[in-house]
Amino acid sequence: MQDETYALEHKLRRSIFAYVTENPGVTYGRIKRMFSLTDSTLRYHLGYLSKHEKVACKLENGKKCYYPEERVLTLGEVAGMNDAAINKNQHDILQFLKEHPGASRHDLQSRLHLEKDAVAYNLRRLSEQKVIWKKRQGRGTVYEVITQNGLKKEMQVILMERFLKGEIDEKRFLELKKRLDERFEKRAK
């Protein structure tokens, strides 16, 4: 088999790959319209990219949707994650969420000028990698980057809710709260 870099040497194929990477979940029809291609030409290039593990096709609601082929990171890799381990859209989303905690999908779409599918895909990937979490807020959902302080607050809220619901008594509540505070103090050092 030819070298894997050959898969991206063809100008049109490289453009299709770049488009799929920037718009994960893009449909076959949208790619076809974007590049004004015939079915046979597009099928050939998408097949070639798939064969060389550059893109993956998933059937969603009866439509072929294409995603960049990415392996799932382990939790250890995520803990040591740097900007090189994520794509550009994920980097932009993380930066935006750091500056605007509690942003919605719509906020991300409009402020970062990303397609709805691209935002949904990248939020799902970042959530799977335990880099962000989503929270229900009213009728909607908001997203935040997971931080030590945020994690501590979230755990304190859960602990308080369990106490108020009567699931744990006051003595156990105070004991767990103290252990929680001690753990986060050790991590902060």
SSE order and pairing:
Blueprint: H1 11-22, E1 26-27, H2 28-35, H3 39-51, E2 55-60, E3 63-68, H4 75-79, H5 88-99, H6 105-112, H7 116-128, E4 132-137, E5 140-145, H8 148-164, H9 170-188
Antiparallel strand pairs: 1-3, 2-3, 4-5
Helix pairs in contact: 8-9
Question: Would you kindly provide a written description of the structure presented here, covering whatever features stand out?
Answer:
With 189 residues, the protein is α+β, with helices and mostly antiparallel strands. It has 3 domains: 4-68, Orthogonal Bundle (Arc Repressor Mutant, subunit A), CATH 1.10.10; 75-145, Arc Repressor Mutant, subunit A (Orthogonal Bundle); 148-188. It is built from 9 helices and 5 strands. It has a 3-stranded antiparallel β-sheet. Helix 8 runs antiparallel to helix 9 (170-188). The longest helix has 19 residues, at 170-188. It is elongated and about 70 Å long.
Q: What is the CATH class designation of the largest domain?
A: Mainly Alpha
Run of helices and strands? HEHHEEHHHHEEHH
Number of discrete domains: 3
Total strands: the figure is 5
CATH topology assignment of the largest domain: Arc Repressor Mutant, subunit A
General shape: elongated
Mean pLDDT, as a whole number? 81
Q: Strand order, biggest sheet?
A: 1-3-2
Main β sheet profile: 3 strands, antiparallel
In terms of per-residue confidence, which ranges show pLDDT below 50 for 5 or more consecutive residues? 71-84
The helix/strand class is alpha+beta
